Amino acid sequence: MSAPPSADGAVAPPRSPGLSKVATGIAGLDEVTLGGLPRGRTTLVAGAAGAGKSLFGIEFLVRGARDLGEPGVLMSFEESRDELVENVSSMGYDVEQLERDGLLVVDAVRVDRTQFIETGGFDLEGLFLRLGAAVDQIGATRVTLDTIEVLFSALGNEAIIRAELSRLFRWLKDRGLTTVVTGERGRAGEMTRFGIEEYVSDCVIVLDHRVDQEISTRRLRVVKYRGSLHGTNEYPFLITATGLVVVPITSLGLDYAAPRERLSTGIDELDEMVDGGIYRASTLLVGGGAGTGKTSICAHVAAAACARGEKVVFFSLEESPAQLTRNMGSIGIDLQKWMDAGQLRMASVRATASGLEEHLANLRAELDDLRPSLVVLDALASLGRVGTTHELSSIIARDLDLLRSRGITTVLTALTPEDQSAATDGAVASLVDAWVQLRNHQHAGARVRLLSVVKMRGSRHSDKVRELRFTDQGAVLQDSTVAAGRHEGDDRT
Amino acid sequence: MTDDPETTHAGDADPEPESSDAWYELRLYVAGQTPRSVRAVDNLHHVCEEHLSGRYRVEVIDLLKDPTLARGDEIIALPTLVRALPEPIRRIIGDLSDTEKVLIGLQLRPGP
User: Fold this and answer.
1) Which of A131, A253, A351, A402 is within CB 3.0–4.6 Å of A382 for a Cys-Cys bond?
2) Residues of B in contact with A155 (CB under 8 A)
3) Is the pLDDT of residue A358 over 90?
4) What's the gap in Å between the CA of A184 and the closest CA on chain B?
């Protein structure tokens, strides 16, 4: 039998002697594990039924085969070949094409307890030979075994299986195969039902699937990673149309940079109110009722960033790009110009259509694609229509984590009722660095818009309430006769 | 020859109708000439001569020579004896030293 092909390409050199990592290609996972899974070693992925562990194992192979030049062998003990091909094709991968290209071998092992009668000593050499033949056939460097524990219930003789599994994991290591084995979560306190974690000493990842307030949340945690630093947090992950997406939460460590640079909001008077502009890489919340001008403020900030030569993604959950450009044109903000210049991208998402999880995946894709320095999220209230408030704040937290970790300045709007008692406010307020509040006010038969700065982390800010007017040259703020004397009743600062 | 009480009463009603005259196609999978492989081949030979005389064929397949054959018959454990005929297909694992279980596995004797 030929030696396993040497490891080459696509992966960063070892960070420490003896430890080299293999990029999985799974979005976000390689960041969380600081480079991927341990090369030539076995990683256990444990989780309850439906936690996504099979998908993890398959995506590890498919991405390796297709994107990273690492052929792989999938040995599945649970699903039939047809089921596998169908499941993977739902992620947009053509398993059979990969097989024809010599990049993947799928071996669906049928083990059915009723078929086995034990008549004396045996070993699992058949499995070894079978796996070895598949590995040699395509020069595989990756292997996924999903879920090998099935052998325990199928073959019954636990002593032999334990001895053979131990031999199997040694064999995989000797051959330098980077392997993912999946394991079913055991009862409370047990990592896996049959304790296969005792054979895997290098890396253990646990997947979790909880349903809270009727919204499902998936989490991933690296429990163990011998010889390597790794994030110990639970990271939310999503199962999207193209596979898993792990969302690293960096801000929990509060280790993101806090630049001192101030950015103009595009409205001179507002810049003055916040002592010279908002901080780069900070988060600005623009709150207010319907029709108070939240989107217009965002458009100002976006246009100002474009004018500085920066790139901006404007996520609108309520208006189409055409509507936005037209409406903003009427107050003298030319968004089309920046779109044509390739500096501004509008991403319209109808909240009800895509759901909270997809929202996050979309956001991530846009960030990877355009690499903006400023992002507008308008309007979070629309997101709230999809999930509960609890889940909404969780999504916002994830959005902001993602944006902060990349040093992106964020402007988000939230629909807040006049009394400001909405839960959205409270939950979001603690996450943002600056908060500008807008509201409508009826005065002497006329409606005026009032603007105040509620919060400005790390900076002085004006306590004044000013009147906001939109002209065909953009927004202007002026001292308000209306607000004067009524100030104390207006805000909860 | 010592009479095996299990095998002498040819006149007893046979619980498995097929076992009386059905043709047996058997494939024994092994890996190399290990003591266990040799034992399995010997044990199978004895069982067949004693219970299936004149109506069986055995093929011994060494997976070390062609490991790709393991997939076709769903082989994981070795040795594995596959009863291809009569249908349905049956798999018996181990070195076949427990004759009683071998007979049950081949459905030459009712199971427990």
Assistant:
1) A351
2) 76-77, 93
3) no
4) 21
